Amino acid sequence: MIDDFEARGKRKKLVAELRKKGITDEEVLRAIDAVPRHLFMDPAFLIHAYVDKAFPISSGQTISQPYTVAVQSSLLKVKKRDKILEIGTGSGYQAAVLAELGAKVYTIERFRELYLKAQHTLSGLGYSVDFFYGDGHAGKPQYGPFDGIIITAAIKEIPETLLHQLKTGGKLVAPVGGSDLQVMTLVVRDGEDSFKYSDHGSFVFVPMLKGTVNDN
Ligand code: SAH
User: Fold this and answer.
1) Residue 150 CB coordination number (10 Å)
2) 136 lines ligand 1 (CB under 6 A)
3) Which of 118, 127, 176, 181 has the maximum number of C-beta atoms within 10 A of its C-beta?
4) What is the pLDDT of residue 1?
5) Whose CA is nearest to atom 19 of ligand 1?
6) Is the C-beta atom of 119 inside 6 A of ligand 1?
7) pLDDT in tens, 69-124
8) What's the pLDDT tens digit per position in 2-55?
9) What is the pLDDT of residue 191?
10) Which of 55, 69, 110, 184 to mutate for ligand 1's pocket (most ligand atoms within 8 Å of CB)?
11) 153 Cα: distance to centroid of ligand 1 (angstroms)
12) What is the pLDDT of residue 117?
């Protein structure tokens, strides 16, 4: 797959913009600098690949805004070899950023077409991520417990079953709220039945929905 001088230059500018917007985690900035976002875009929006906005992808979904990816990745405080579960693979861009940070990534998507495409994109880039086609509400207990769980679709309430797939000290980050606006919520499991919640700004995501769609 092709990356080039021009795309690399645009990524440097994007990273500078993210710094200005308050992203300070150097590892996350390095990962965003390393992952060629243009290869995750729908061809119709290719020229906007390094604009700090969300854009449409297949199946009526979106590739997250780089700022949002940076915020969620920073909140997870990923360490090398951390086991991270992502719910909402979409384009696979967020999964690639987590893999670039050295995480062992498990990612679930409910649209079969996106699940197949993201697999193709990431393997082309040499990232080794475990992909699942399914409804992420139940998580992946057989692969847990996880150091981190990241939900990249809007959810009204965080399912208990996901919180219980965290290790002690593990973190879950999710946009919680209705369809118009969600609050980025960080939950840290600090004991068997002890969970600490904190809020980290407002965001807009596509909704987390039930079931799967076999559109390919
Ligand atoms: N992380 C993505 C952003 C994807 S948008 C990226 O970097 O591009 C949110 C994604 O969550 C969509 O692809 C949507 O289909 C998926 N999704 C919504 N509900 C889901 C569920 N219950 N299980 C798994 N994926 C879900």
Assistant:
1) 26
2) yes
3) 118
4) 56
5) 208
6) no
7) 999 999 999 999 999 999 999 999 999 999 999 999 999 999 999 999 999 999 99
8) 889 999 999 999 999 999 999 999 999 999 999 999 999 999 999 999 999 999
9) 95
10) 110
11) 5
12) 97
In this predicted structure, what is the pLDDT of residue 64?
97
Please give the model's pTM, rounded to 2 decimal places.
Answer: 0.98
Q: Would you state the torsion angle of the CA atoms of residues 49, 52, 58, 62, taken in this order, to the nearest 10 degrees?
A: 170
What CA–CA distance (Å, rounded) separates 49 from 42?
9
DSSP secondary structure letters along the chain: ----HHHHHHHHHHHHHHHHTT---HHHHHHHHHS-GGGGS-GGGGGGTTSSS-EE-GGG-EEPPHHHHHHHHHHHT--TT-EEEEE--TTSHHHHHHHHTT-EEEEEESBHHHHHHHHHHHHHTT---EEEES-GGG--GGG--EEEEEE-SBBSS--HHHHTTEEEEEEEEEEEE-SS-EEEEEEEEEETTEEEEEEEEEE--PBP-SS-B---
Q: Ligand 1, residues 100, 209, 215: which to mutate, most atoms within 8 A of Cβ?
A: 209
Which tokens sit at 116? 């197949």
